[in-house]
Amino acid sequence: MAGKVFFSVTMSLDGFMAPEAVPVEDAFSPEKRDDPGVRRWMSKWARLQAWAFPQRWFRENLKLGEGGEEGVDNDIARATYERTGASVMGKRMFDLGEQSWPEEAPFHTPVFVVTHQKRDPWERPGGTTFHFVNDGIESALDQARDAAGDRDVRIAGGAETIQQYLDTGLLDEFSVTLAPVLFGTGIRLFDRVDPDRLTLNQVRTAASNRVTHLTYTVSKR
What we know:
Helices cover 30% and strands 29% of the residues.
């Protein structure tokens, strides 16, 4: 039996899942780390994701050391990872991650990158292999489903890729972690989604003293 297709992201209270875009080559470049725009981007990103850094599962997965917090945030982070049998992402997210992920990339499953670039699969230690898909989001999802088996497929991001899957009705469920930050500007999670095509039903909510986790099922109207 095929699993679900879902996404899970952190969002600011005013609806942004990332700060303003910066050139991919600048975001994690040592030569650009003192650039005011890059420093502002990194500061915003760190505040958005601050809830995750102390979690025991997050620290274990990225090999940041032993220990860490346990509780609802840690449980949700771990459950998201454990349900995922394969991931799909866009080229921009991959380009940013290629610069910043450790050698043992944090997915530990097949990842299908939607891109126009032709490239052989890129295998990393720890079970992550990136496959580059040149014929659209549906093909990427089909390949991810095959790889995931009876586990779920996660649409990892970025925003534009998530929006495409939402708008075409290919998603079953999504979770938003609301962080207590305001960006004012940035990349909106639902910016290009047609609201008249989707029906959402809230199925779960959980909160810690850091963030609130909201989960919705998705159906087409």
